[in-house]
């Protein structure tokens, strides 16, 4: 099983960051390459469309508003991996700041662990950089 993780510190409160990222269907609000998110099954599934038209479906596995974290899996998508599971978490970083961690595990399918890890590291780092740009 391969894995990737990235984090970013943002100089606003964790609650402010969570308000933007905490909604399971809120990706288009902060992640530039996601053009559309359509909730399904009462919000437990999100059907994403990327800027280039790719389709991704993800299922919410756990959600904790108090701890500001959620875990999800990819059920359908263009990625060369299986058994994908990721967690997004917002925590306090000092007096006024927030730390956002985005990590995932997955099984590469037709590519090496290193290639799969680089793919998702790029997604996580690019997404967190974009998130920070909102503040």
Overview of the structural elements:
The protein has 135 residues and is an alpha+beta fold. It has a single domain, classed as START domain (Alpha-D-Glucose-1,6-Bisphosphate, Chain A, domain 4). Helices cover 24% and strands 48% of the residues. The chain is built from three helices and seven strands. The chain has helices at 14-21, 27-30, 113-133, and strands spanning 2-10, 34-40, 45-50, 55-64, 69-76, 81-93, 97-108. A seven-stranded antiparallel β-sheet has the order 1-7-6-5-4-3-2. The protein is globular, with a radius of gyration of 14 Å. The N and C termini lie far apart (34 Å). The relative contact order is 0.26. The mean pLDDT is 96.
Set out the fold topology.
Blueprint: E1 2-10, H1 14-21, H2 27-30, E2 34-40, E3 45-50, E4 55-64, E5 69-76, E6 81-93, E7 97-108, H3 113-133
Antiparallel strand pairs: 1-7, 2-3, 3-4, 4-5, 5-6, 6-7
